[in-house]
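Teaching assistant here, posting this on the class forum so everyone can see the example we discussed in section. The complex has two components, and the goal was to see what a joint structure prediction looks like when all of them are supplied at once.
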Amino acid sequence: MEEMQPKLLDLIPNERGWGVTANDREMVIGGGFGVREEKKLELRLGLPGEEDWNANRKKTEGLCANVKPSFSLGLFGAPQTKQEAGLITGEAQKIHAKADKQTSVVERKAIAHAATPPAATPLPSNSRAANAPVVGWPPVRSFRRNLASTSKTVLEPQKWASGTCAKFENSTKGLFVKINMDGVPIGRKIDLKAYDSYDKLSSAVDQLFRGLLADQRSEIGTEKNVEEKGRAIQGLLDGSGEYTLVYEDDEGDKMLVGDVPWEMFVSTAKRLRVLKSSDLSASTLRTTSRKRAATEC
Amino acid sequence: MKVQSAMFYFPEEVIEHIFSFLTHHPDRNTVSTVCKAWYKIERLSRREVFVGNCYAIRPDRAAARFPGLRSLTLKGKPHFADFDLVPPDWGGLAGPWIEAMARSCPNLEELRMKRMVVSDESLELLVHAFPNFKALVLVSCEGFSTDGLAAVARSCKSLRELDLQENEIEDRGPRWLNSFPDMCTSLVSLNFACLKGEVNLKSLERLVCRSPNLKCLRLNRAVPVETLAKIMNQCPNLEDLGTGSLLADQFSEAYVSLISALQKCKKLRCLSGFWDASPLCLLAVYPICANLTGLNLSYAPTVQGQDFINLIQHCVKLLRLWVLDSVGDKGLAVVASACKELQELRVFPSDLFAAGPATVTEEGLVAISTGCPKLNSLLYFCHSMTNSALITVSKNCPNFTRFRLCILEPRKPDPATNEPLDEGFGAVVKTCKNLRRFSISGLLTDQVFYYIGKYAKALEMLSIAFAGDTDQGMTYVLNGCKNLRKLEIRDCPFGDGALLADVTKYETMRSLWMSSCDISLRGCKALATKMPSLNVEIINEWEAEMEENLNNGVAEVISNNNNKHINNGNDERKVEKLYVYRTVGGPRTDAPDFVWTL
């Protein structure tokens, strides 16, 4: 503190709230973390009930000591109950409509990006939002991130005694393909090797996009209930649902997912798309029987 | 008068010769600005160019200026792209650069790229356009597959270096290794550690056999111990080795063979890989540890506890060490007692969630600083840190040039005092006069930025996350850090006031990244208006979503806050991601829809 000369701060133009007296300075710099006036500008990740949250915070000296439930966006671990988790995502929608857009942006982002942990089995969107780490945090490259999440499957002591040298585990040999969904601007990547059947893939796609899609819908102004947030994306494979899963194969053709044997699908699929079933027409897809007659592509 | 005329006829060759002693890029850039004659001499004799931001200049212009170019280094996406903060398809395409070089710089021999998108077609073009091509280094790149690697292997007559570091490479099978022609004997360095797929082991062995100059070889996880042993027997002159999988049975021939092979490699200085390493295989490594200067165990979660201690205590000459935090404070204490020459330490997290078990803390770092006073480069992921530890560390190691500390839990205060970590980080900038790169974390107020602005005069790159209270914080940095080149900020409460505090500053920097801060469209537009020499790009994912909904004929009512057009008058909208950089190339022509250049 002794380096703090009064002169220096005086030279700083347009200082806001820093004051010119030694006392003021000490107040702001000494022990506080700007909980006072500067609150508004502060970016926080936490429950939207701001007053409660601040009260909680003021109670404790440190930010993290007792506020674990508040930081339900994954910074400090899982929420206590699923209800709490649902509350978070529900609250997140309310936030958007009201004040403090900045917090909402962050929360939306955190929820929306909860789908991106690579190589991880997708969880239901509620608890995923709560358990999910902040996007891009900690700052490790995706290469290393993949290692960290899959390394645990490799730590099996009996392997060391075996006479055979191991090829590396199947679980780490991912086959990531891009997947885009109508109405969701940012694509994701999905590991085809993590599934062994179309049903599992369909369910994974549902989980991956379910929360995101509901977020988009609430975003554009339609008032959806909290329950709708978890509405499943069904009927991806048989054309019965609102959305249908299609893929592009290595020849660039768009195909309906589900027609060929699973293994063949995995080896030829280059990217996936989740299209609105209403947008699909016979002309945009080639079936495996190669009916080219009426196609317009 | 006489002197003047003598200078007028000063032969170009002499000037060129003098310039050849200038190896530092900024120096060469400076002499080129002296006069037209020097500009011309410099540009024709320039052999190496470093482009820190591939959008700072148009590829055509760079290629045309330096026709004699032999070596090009390019960096593409912003640093935070490594952490998924930049959407896919953002840009950073290598294609236009390779095409431009193909047109104007036929003598290109080396290409190094970081965070760029490279296609297989570009790789094909690369090896066909440049007959003398020798070295390809790709770091954190994507967009290509093993087919592209096959093209490189197949067509490069005298390939010396193929170095792939942490790239996303699509695996299309192991055939690419076969593509090295039989007469290719020029390999000096081959690194395919980041490849996830199988490799053809026989091809690999044959390739190594016919590469007498091989000094650096980094294998991927698919290469078993038997093959490693065979390879090691073929190259006793290897200096840098990245092992494949190190699983082996004690009594297997492979293990015995490995031991004897390793002992023959007297020149081995750098080891990495250690995938799935068993304690037995580590035993095999002990005899060569005493000469190691570099050791990377950061892909080996199996090397921990006593295994790690047994290994590291032999490594007395170690200069660079990369480990996982599973070695614990205890492991770091052993490092501190054994590795007295240590200059660089990186401790990576083995568990990415802050809620996991604590493995390294401030104690480990203090121990290291006490035992290794030569430490100048640090990357440390930990669960907690105290001010007093940081103060001690900076006293013990005043020579830091790179100091990056990541406390896994954002905004975590000093657990001993519950105070912010301003004083601790402040101590680092006060004592380390040569600090060039700084990353901070934990609970931080504007105060830490005051210290950075005041003391970090040599600072070139600063990374900030979840820190600060007001615009003043960022302003301190912009005003004080004279040598700042790259500033990247995420999740901090800095708004338009900070962004616009010193707009001309950005012209002296390479780039600014701000995401999840408090800046608005109005502020960004103001910046763009005031500084036409900058590209002010915003990435607005939610705006892009509005467009797409409209295009799809979605009939819902769109509320006021989400109008799709950038100029609809609602400038108060917050900007999610901002990327500002100086450029002479004008706005990007390859920007995707979700990137708006203001």
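For the discussion questions: The radius of gyration of chain A is 25 Å. Residues 1-132, 152-173, 221-229, 286-297 of chain A have pLDDT under 50 and may be disordered. Think about how each of these relates to the inputs above.
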